[in-house]
Amino acid sequence: MVDELPWWGGLLLPIVLLALAGATASWDAVLHDRASGGPGWRASMTLPLREAGGLLVQQRRRTLAADVLLGRGGALALLLAAVLASLVTPLGHWAVADLSIGIVWFNAMEVVAWAAVWLVGWGANSAYGLVGGYRFIAQGLAYELPHMFALITAALGAGSLRVADVVAAQSSVWFVVWMPLAFVVYLASVLAMAFWGPFDQPVGADAAGGAAAELSGVDRLVFTAARWLLLTSGAAFAVPLFLGGGAGPVLPAWLWSLAKTLAVLALLVWAKRRIPTLRMERYQEIAWIVLIPLTLVQALVVAVVVLAR
Amino acid sequence: MDLTAWLLGRTPVRPLVATTVGGTGARLAVEQEIRRRGWRPALNPAEANLLIVPGPADPAMAPFTNAVWQLIPAPRVRLDLVDASEVASALSSAERRLRSPEEQRSAATEDTVALNAEHHHTPAIEAHHAAPGSHDDQQHSHHSGHGDTEHSRHEGHGSQDEHADGSHSGQMAHGHHHGHDMSGMEMPGGIPMADRADDRDGLKLDRLTVPLGPVLPAWPAGLLVHAVLQGDVVQEAVVETVLTPAHGTAAFWDSLASDRIRIAARRLDSCARLLTVAGWEHAAVTAARLRDNLLSEQEPGPRFARWAKLVRRSRVLRWSLTGVGIHADSGDALDRLTRWIDEAEAAIDGTASAVDEDPAAVLDALPGLLAGAEFATARLIVASFDPDLERVRVTHG
User: Fold this and answer.
1) Residue B335, pLDDT above cutoff 90
2) pTM for the whole thing?
3) Is A52 an interface residue toward B (CB < 8 Å)?
4) Which has more confidence, B397 or A177?
5) Nearest chain A CA: its distance from B148 CA (Å)
6) Which of B32, B64, B92, B129 to mutate to test the interface with A (most CBs of A within 10 A)?
7) What is the pLDDT of residue B248?
8) What is the 3-state secondary structure (H, E, C) of chain A?
9) pLDDT of residue B359
């Protein structure tokens, strides 16, 4: 069902991810332009690209007594983790790697963000960076457990941690149909792991950009790109996990994968416009008291169904 | 072809707006123009490439704006704007200067010359960023012997600026990052270490004195809060204003003739700031757009009703503002936001009536409200009062 690509698949992966991330950023910019009465969609569409170009020619600033190695290392680790997480995500019938523990691999890469964002915030030696770093750790504590239960639920439904098996198990019914709760929790945690939209407190406007408060030039480019790639990787992984992978009529499987990924991304961009930032101070409570029990019940239901089948 | 010049010619403008007290009119014109041009405001100096200082030149504010300017990486342009009518042309010319390689090259040369001349003589106070203190204590005790000399040297510098800033026993910070690495010093960057004290749970934690403002996104112009932070909890707050009293001038909002515009636009402006701090960019930018419509005497139309409905109905917003900054007269942050929306709605419908709060009373109440608040909550508290210090400047002048 899922074939591993030869070595050049590894080169293709970042390109595909970047294209998807760029499209999402453009779409986000166009929607922002519409709401704010800006110069029009043509100018906004190219904004992410021009931003990237602008950051390339911006001076690389550093703060006094900053831990440059850890700070820059953090941003780079975030970028690598965002790309590597998608190693196991199939595009139609192709994946760069078809690991027997694919879901665990994805989870492990995404957890790198915890360390990476903290290091970026801490490394700058700035109070706002530090506050942003703290916030991401708190956010991690809130989203990670429900997120892992959501992943486990999908694995449970398929009886395997291999992504190809999860896709194969959805040949009759997509997992989103009988695990809707896990799907919603998964999407929320995609936003949280990319600290984006309603979960953008670690880089919030109130803390002057939080963990990213001191980044300029290439450092900011790496960090920002990593954030978009993380969002894209997370959204793309929802497709094999809950939306039947490349399954669909008429069109080829890879096109279905892309279309579904873009649909998930569009949904996330929409959520950003509708929901203000969730304060971790308050969300923590919901995550632990409501979401963890709910995801556990969801897992229980799935387990019973699997046993009864 | 010169790639750098090509990229520079297309670089998006990222303005950082640092309003001085008395600059509300200019700020509104700037914000409107920024929005129309599709520029995205910067959240911090590192991200910015254009510093805009709307409002009259104010000697009290100058050290802060200068320090922020020092923190902005090249390519960069600074714009001081007094008059709201010159905004459009000034922003166009700033954009041109930012994107011109010749301009940037000569500006960089001037900076280097200026930097060499003042190097180690006039340290800028870092107005925007806190002096950091995320160091471990071991390092502190290990180096304290050497550190003392560094410390006193920097304190000596600090006294020059003390009249302007008023704080700083241990928060001298840096303005120059231009490639001089101070990591060889005995104490990290020559900055004194943070104190330690018990926090609310009885744990010994670093205490950092962090100046909040006067240059922060969606922050009231001229407000400076010296916050003692442990982690991200504000333990103590000292509130001061950064302004020079002016006689014979009226506050911008009071000078507007039409009650309808005055009340509705002002409330929408406060809503836009509170929504920005609450992390709802979409609703904030819509509020700002409605505000600008009113100020240019256009009808906001059904968009206002849609926006008000969206904001009133947001459960997440309600949840995040409830119980924040409870004040005897005005309730919590959600009550204040709801009141602003109600007043704006009434004013647009032509039945204007608004309660004018006294900014001085807000300033008195702030330290008590901020103490013990988590950082995000503290920002929401300040934004939910949105004190207009122009009125302090006039009445108490």
Assistant:
1) yes
2) 0.85
3) no
4) A177
5) 17
6) B129
7) 65
8) CCEECCCCHHHHHHHHHHHHHHHHHHHHHHHHHHHHCCCCHHHHHCHHHHHHHHHHCCCCCCCCCCCHHHHHHHHHHHHHHHHHHHHHCCECCEECCCCCCHHHHHHHHHHHHHHHHHHHHHHCCCHHHHHHHHHHHHHHHHHHHHHHHHHHHHHHHHCCCCHHHHHHCCCCCCHHHHCHHHHHHHHHHHHHHCCCHHHCHHHCHHHCCHHHCCCCHHHHHHHHHHHHHHHHHHHHHHHHHHCCCCCCCCCCHHHHHHHHHHHHHHHHHHHHHHCCCCCHHHHHHHHHHHHHHHHHHHHHHHHHHHHHC
9) 86
